[in-house]
């Protein structure tokens, strides 16, 4: 009984935006009645970019099932008129995934992460039992691994850099 009531509420609250720039249709964005999330129409002004000030209209959504979608993005010039009209149920444009990760890039990022972890573990073993002096308070101690914290003053540094040139 409660479940049916909940579904009805979601359907009633489906919303769409129709966005026009100078009376020309930019897009109709929406969230499906089977999904839930936030629909945004943002007018942004970013000052002092390398190419000067940038004014942009971005229509996008964040949804539970469909993820983050972009419906439209357009540069806005001085004098442009942007209209955002809230609409009830109906059809809307297909959004494009806002974040796209190239599969080849994903593989190489994973490879880099694996190599970094391998280097980290290697350094942890290599610098275990190294005799060091804390760069800050000069307390002498034997390192447990590469990454550590001075037992006396709490300074965090790498045993592989006993001069303290690469704190983390
Ligand atoms: Zn110390």
Summarize the structure.
The chain is 21% helix and 40% strand. It contains two helices and eleven strands, in the order H-E-E-E-E-E-E-E-H-E-E-E-E. Mean pLDDT is 83; it is low at 1-12.
How would you characterize the overall build of this protein?
The structure is a single chain. It contains 2 helices and 11 strands, in the order H-E-E-E-E-E-E-E-H-E-E-E-E. It folds into 2 domains: 2-97, no CATH class; 103-158, no CATH class. It has helices at 2-12, 103-126; strands at residues 16-21, 24-30, 37-49, 52-63, 67-75, 82-87, 96-97, 131-133, 140-142, 147-149, 156-158. The protein has 168 residues and is α+β, with helices and mostly antiparallel strands. The radius of gyration is 27 Å and the shape is elongated. It starts with a helix and ends in a 10-residue tail after the last strand. The protein binds zinc ion (ZN). Residues 134, 136-137, 139, 150, 152-153, 155 line the site of zinc ion.
């Amino acid at each position: 009984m409660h479940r049916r009531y909940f579904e009805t509420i979601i359907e009633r609250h489906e919303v769409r935006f129709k966005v026009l720039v100078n009376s020309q249709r930019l897009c109709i964005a929406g969230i499906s009645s089977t999904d839930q999330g936030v629909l945004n129409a943002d007018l942004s002004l970013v000052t002092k970019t390398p190419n000067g000030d940038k004014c942009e209209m971005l229509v996008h959504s964040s949804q539970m099932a469909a993820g983050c979608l972009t419906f439209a993005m357009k540069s806005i010039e001085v004098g442009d008129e942007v209209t955002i009209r809230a609409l009830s149920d109906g059809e809307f444009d297909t959004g494009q995934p806002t974040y796209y990760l190239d599969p080849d890039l994903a593989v190489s990022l994973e490879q880099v992460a694996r190599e970094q972890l391998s280097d980290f573990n290697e350094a942890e073993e290599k610098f275990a039992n190294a005799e060091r002096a804390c760069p800050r308070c000069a307390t002498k101690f034997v390192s447990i691994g590469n990454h550590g914290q001075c037992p006396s003053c709490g300074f965090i540094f790498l045993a592989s850099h006993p001069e303290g040139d690469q704190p983390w």
